[in-house]
Amino acid sequence: MAAARHRHERWLHTRISEDLEDALKREARRQRSPVSLVVRNVLESALDMVEDIVEDSLHIARRSRRFARHVERAASGRPETLDDIYGWQELILNRAASCAKCATALAGGARAYRGLRDEPGPPVFLCAGCVRRLRHPSTQKEEGA
Ligand SMILES: [Zn+2]
Questions:
Q1: Rg (CA), the chain
Q2: Is the pLDDT of residue 6 over 50?
Q3: Distance from the CA of 72 to the center of ligand 1, in angstroms?
Q4: Which of 123, 122, 97, 124 is closest to 109 using CA atoms?
Q5: Measuring CA to CA, which residue among 77, 75, 78 is closest to residue 130?
Q6: How many CB atoms lie within 10 A of CB 134?
Q7: How far away, in angstroms, is 82 Cα from ligand 1 center?
Q8: How far is the CA of 92 from the centre of ligand 1 (A)?
Q9: What is the predicted pLDDT for the residue at 58?
Q10: pLDDT (tens digit, 9 = 90+) per residue, 118-135?
């Protein structure tokens, strides 16, 4: 029985324009297929396309979130750039920290230099060596060190 063979299939009635009907009939003639099959194929391929677009959008959204986290981490953690710091103030550390430039560990009791900036933010420290390099940039040309 046909009804048993196609028990997962449903009828879908919908109103379409005359132009759309003509286009579907033309396509059916071109494919030498029944109009109903053409309609089904068009709908299925359209849904596949939507799924692909949704998948791509999710992929882009995930990448955007990853990028935002990366930016956030860069902003909150050790800053890549110390451009907004207008000066370095010498102090004796009470808590352990690390140099923002060379990542040297700075123990409590050690001499360090705190970055002063216009905008509030997490404290940034430099070790004595990096401050020395700031004072005499010409004597030691160590890129990224
Ligand atoms: Zn340093």
A1: 33
A2: yes
A3: 23
A4: 97
A5: 78
A6: 13
A7: 13
A8: 15
A9: 84
A10: 878 788 999 999 999 988
Between the CA of 105 and the centroid of ligand 1 the distance, in Å, is 9
Residues with a beta carbon under 5 angstroms from ion ligand 1: 99, 101-102, 104, 127, 130
- Asked if residue 1 has pLDDT above 60, the reply is no
Tell me the C-alpha distance between 102 and 145, whole Å. Answer: 6
- Distance from the CA of 126 to the center of ligand 1, in angstroms? 5
Give dist(CA 21, CA 18) in Å, integer.
5
For helices 18-31 and 35-76, the axis angle rounded to 10 degrees is 100
Contact in structure between 121 and 102 (CB atoms under 8 Å): no
pLDDT digits (tens, 9 = 90+) for 105-121: 999 999 999 999 887 87
Q: Which residue from 113, 109, 84, 111 is spatially nearest to 95, judged by alpha carbons?
A: 109
* Cα–ligand 1 centroid distance for 112 (angstroms): 9
In whole angstroms, give the CA distance from residue 107 to residue 69: 29
